Amino acid sequence: MLVRLGLTFTVFIIDMLVWGGDSLTTAGHTVPVPLVVVVAAVLYGTLLSHKHPLLGYGAMLVLSLGTLLVPAAANLAGFLLALFLVARQSPAATARWALVGASVPVSANMIASLNFHAPVPVGFAFLNLGLWCVLVIVVWLAGRALGRTAARLRAEKLRSEAAREEAIVNERLRISRDLHDSVAHSLTAILLQVAGIRALHSDRTRQEVEPAELERVLSDIQTTAEQSMRELHRMLGMLRERAGSLEDTYTGKLSEVPVLVASAQAAGLAVQYQISGLIQPVDPSIEHAGYRLVQEGLSNAMKHGGPGSKVSVDVMWTRDHLRVSIRSHSGITPISDSVSGGFGLIGLRERVSVSGGSLTAGPTEDGFLIDARLPISPESTSLPPEVRKT
C-alpha cells in the first residue's frame, strides 16, 4: 500500500509540474487553479484502489479528455501508472482493451498540441506521438510481465503449501500405522500369555503352576506392556510435533528383530530365526521396512496360527537386495481373528512399494507366507558375514 501511495503521489506531482498552472481553456476563458488541483487530486486518489484497478484507469481516461478543455492540463504520467496497474492485475483480455484505450489520452494530447498550443512543427508533434506510443507499450509490457511473475509465484506457493499439507498427512498416516503395528504386536503377545496362564489354572488335571514359572510369564507380560506404553507415548509425541527430520521418525531396526523373536517365543510361539549373507548398512527406511515385515509376520502367526504353530524368519542379504521371508505353519486349532486390525498388510504393501521393493503375501498349504525384496545400494560397504539361528 505504501508503494502504491508513493507512486500515486509521484505521478500527481509530475503531472502538476508539467501542467504549470496554465488554466486557459480552448474557449479563451480561465478555470480556477484550485478547482483543477482538487478535481485532479480526487481522480488520482482512485489509483489507490488495490482491488479495482479499472476504477483508477477509468478516472485517468476521463481526466485525459480534460486536455480538450484545458490543453495544458495533461495527465500522461497518471495514465501510465493506471495502465501499468491494469496490465499487472487484470486478465489478459482486460489488459489488451486497456492498451487499446491508451489511444484516447495520447490522441487528446496530440490534438491539444496541434490545435490549442503555440504553433508546433508537425514533425515534432509526430515524434512526440511516437515516443508516447513507445512509452505506453513499454509500460504495458512491464505490467504484464510482472503480473505473470506474480501469478506464477502465487501458484508455486499454493502448490508448495498443498505439498506440505500432503506430506504432513502422509507422515501422520505412516506414524499411525507404525503405532498400530507396534502396539498390536505387543498386545497380541500379552493376550496369548494371559490366555496361557488362564488355561493352566482352569486345567484341574495338571499340577499347580510353579511360582517361578508364573513370575517369569508375568514379568514378560509387564515388560511387553511397558515397551508398548513407551512406544505409544513416543508415537503420540511425534504426532504432536511438526518439526524433525524424517529419518528420526523411523523406529525399529533389523538389529532389534531378536527382541521381537524373544517376545513371540515367550508367548508360546515356536520361532526359528536365521540371518544369512553379508550384512550391509542400508537406508533407515529400508531397515525399518524389514523390521515391520518381521513384526507383522509374527503378529499374524500369534493371532491366527493356533496352538502348536511354528514360524521361520529368514533375513537374507545379497549384493543388490535384502530379502525378508516369514513363513508360518498353522497349529491344530487357529484362534479367533477378532483382534486383527486389518491394516498391517496394507501398510506393509505401501511401505515396501514406496521403498522400491516387492512383496508377496498370502496363504500356503499349511500356513501363511510373507516374502519381500527390498533394494539396497550396491555401493554399500559390506560387513563380515554372520549366520545366526535361534
From TrEMBL:
InterPro entries assigned: HATPase_C_sf (IPR036890), Sensor_HK_TwoCompSys (IPR050482), Sig_transdc_His_kin_sub3_dim/P (IPR011712)
Entry-linked SUPFAM superfamilies: ATPase domain of HSP90 chaperone/DNA topoisomerase II/histidine kinase
Start and end residues of each Signal transduction histidine kinase subgroup 3 dimerisation and phosphoacceptor domain: 171-242
Keyword annotations: ATP-binding, Kinase, Membrane, Nucleotide-binding, Phosphoprotein, Transferase, Transmembrane, Transmembrane helix, Two-component regulatory system
Reactions catalysed: ATP + protein L-histidine = ADP + protein N-phospho-L-histidine
EC class (word): transferase
EC number: 2.7.13.3
Transmembrane feature ranges: 6-24, 31-48, 54-85, 122-143
Gene Ontology molecular functions: kinase activity
Name of the featured protein: histidine kinase
